[in-house]
Predict the 3D structure of the following.
Amino acid sequence: MILKTENLSHRYSSTWAIRDINIEIAEHGIIGLLGSNGAGKSTTMNIICGTLNPTEGNVYINGINKRKDPEAAKREIGFLPQNPPLYTDLTIDEYLVYTAELRLIDKRKVRAAVEEVKDKCGLSHFSSRLIKNLSGGYRQRVGIAQSIIHKPKLVVMDEPTNGLDPNQLIEARKLIREIAQEHTVLLSSHILSEINILCREIIMIESGRIVFSDTMDAFNNYTQAHSILMKFDNPPAKEMLQQIKGVTGVEFLNSQQVRIHFDGDQEMNDRLISASVENGWKLREIGYDKGMLDDIFKQLSTQTA
Ligand SMILES: Nc1ncnc2c1ncn2[C@@H]1O[C@H](COP(=O)(O)OP(=O)(O)OP(=O)(O)O)[C@@H](O)[C@H]1O
């Protein structure tokens, strides 16, 4: 087991920030921790990485209990916090040598480790550039480089793609995928599509509790649309729509726009389009009505309540 957390709970003052967080990661890949702002993602990650002690519970990294043998456990963890601890007056080389030493890499192997990680993260051309003169995307790469320099089994990244522009985003995702070839990556985001694009598994956290934990495919099945929004220039009577196979409900939002509830049948869309054409309803718009993230959060939260 690469990571196991047992009933992790944390209280900052009187209120609990997280309660009974149980995570098990047995396999390689990218695992996403999804939650809205304040859900408890950073608290969970800080505890896993040992920068915060939990009020209750245990963390095992590669089978090592972090409370009992923190040094050995931390050898197997790399951490990219939300605000990476970059020393901006150092050059990339100076900074990475420093982090390699912090990670207790054998002195004779520091140089090779720095070169290897620069190569992996596309930083070799900027070795002697001061960190303060780097763009946001390159600073992020330096942050990622320090998190893998000691070749940990588990790399934890707190909102690694937050605040990047579209090009930087593509580059960062590519780098994270490459890193996940050799390490297990646990990353957080408050953006569902980001987790969807990158992750094999999703752990959803809301108000400090896990509300969903499964593969990304299972999540997508669960949140699959069961309603379709349609707009007609020549709308039919409600009864006509109700007679179409698979339709379970019809809701007129105004005189032209209608929400069709259906049983999840993949061909519902096609069937509705055919009916519109055959009957001259003059279909103007059609699209799945996927619940917004907030709705999904609510749906999942109430399920476990
Ligand atoms: N140092 C602190 N002292 C007191 N309360 C805190 C502290 N850090 C976080 N909290 C509270 O704990 C809860 C969880 O916060 P946390 O930062 O873990 O959430 P998050 O999901 O990472 O959100 P964000 O994406 O906004 O960072 C929030 O209610 C937050 O206000």
